[in-house]
Amino acid sequence: MARYKDAVCRLCRREGGKLFLKGQRCYGPKCSVTKREYVPGQHGANPRRRPRKPSDFAIQLRQKQRARWIYGVLERQFRRYFTAAERARGITGEELLRRLEMRLDNVILRAGFASSHAQGRQVVRHRHVAVNGRVVDIPSYACRVGDLVEIREKSRSNTKVLESLSGAGSRAPLSWLEVTPETFSIRIVAAPRREDIDTDVNEQLIVEFYSR
After folding, report:
1. How confident is the model at residue 116 (pLDDT cuts 50, 70, 90)?
2. Which domains does the chain have, with CATH numbers?
């Protein structure tokens, strides 16, 4: 299954802000955005480098790329999400984010059983997760309202899962997820609304990018 395998910290620097792709490291002093506040590349730190005013296309492209990196989706798959959202009822941009939020690896992250999307993907790929009693190892699996997502019983002592769960206590609970840490289970009680999604992207610019 295709995925991005290069260094992810350079992606945050390219977008000019934290995308929280490395979990807890992003909150500490080792975060590369904090240490090197300039774009990656040979001339990124050149003090004589004059940043050019971005065009409308560049602004739209950056928002699309930002959403892709945050959710860990490659271009072809992201385009399929957009096409499906465009055909669905409702606002295209909000429907796009809703479909990305309902991915299984993202549900694991939002519930606090992983500290990053990459770790959520790994938890799913290593067969630690069951949906409605059946093992699912596809990170892009589209969850539905009413689904019961659980960490399998033999995987509940997994160190990464326990560490992520202990660090998730300070997060505000999500209205569309019913998380029961004692039983390592998640019930999807509703589809996420735009106000429930705190992803820092402008979805309208993504719609404009694909509508050119």
Report:
1. confident
2. 9-45+52-100+201-210 (1.10.1050.10), 103-190 (3.10.290.10)
